[in-house]
Amino acid sequence: MTQPSLAHATDFGRMYSRSTTSTPEVPSITTVIGQEHKDLTGWAGHMAATELIADDRLPEAVGSTTKLRSLARRASSAAARFRDDAAARGDRVHHYAEQVARRALDAEHEAEAAREVLRAHDELAFADQFDHWWRTFAVKPLAAEVTVWNHTLGYAGTLDLVAEIGGRTCIIDFKTKGLTRKGRAKPLSESVVMQLVAGMQAEEMLVDADAGGWTPWPHGDGSPVLLGVALSAREVVPVQANPEVLRSHWHKFWALRQVWEHMRRASEAGPALQPIGPPPAPAPEVAPETAPETAPETAAESAASTA
């Protein structure tokens, strides 16, 4: 998969610049979607427990606190290693899909080399399934790995494929998937609809990264078909984003874009908490001034006052 030349890793997630010499300006589509919190603690715990009980060293570690801690440390990173391995596999499969599209566009390509990389990782089945889907759906690519920009809302992204299928323009996002226990491709997340509709709402597409050359996005009108395509080693499962829900998912994407903006502003505003010391000690109490005591009346004065 070609790394988008205008994409940059930042403290606020992946962001895009307008050219290779300019600074990042807007978040990527996937960064915006990532503002939606997803609790993966249960999955991470399951991955850790599964790796631990499958570790051949577990029987000999029983009774040894040191050995058990070592196995536990290894198991605790199982979810992260699975994620990283899946991401690397996804990059290889996406790269092959891009090269097949480039070959069909009569552009420079590395289709055979990309296929050999998959073979070296024992992932050739992904290429075979992709090729079968490509032929069955008679895919006619229009653009591959195309970077798009939306000024109105402020975001950018790179679309996997724009193609003509059955006489209709399609915006396509590939997702590499593992298999269920029944040997079927795992289903796509509904978040792919936000990703596709954000691509459809693009306003410009990149034509020259070095010079920062852009041209109006030609595929937003005419209601393009939005396809999510699950690529697995056993099958390819394409699904269409339901046209009736696109507005709702676009509004959700819009709201998540506002969340990203407010998170960035809050982060740039400075520390949210600051230390504070105890209040100053109270001033010591001062006794009130007292009037001088009056001398007692003499007997004569008392008699005169009562006369």
TrEMBL record:
Residues 17-26 have a biased composition (Polar residues). Residues 1-26, 269-307 are annotated as: Disordered. Residues 276-285 have a biased composition (Pro residues). Residues 286-307 have a biased composition (Low complexity). This is PD-(D/E)XK nuclease family protein. It comes from Nesterenkonia halobia.
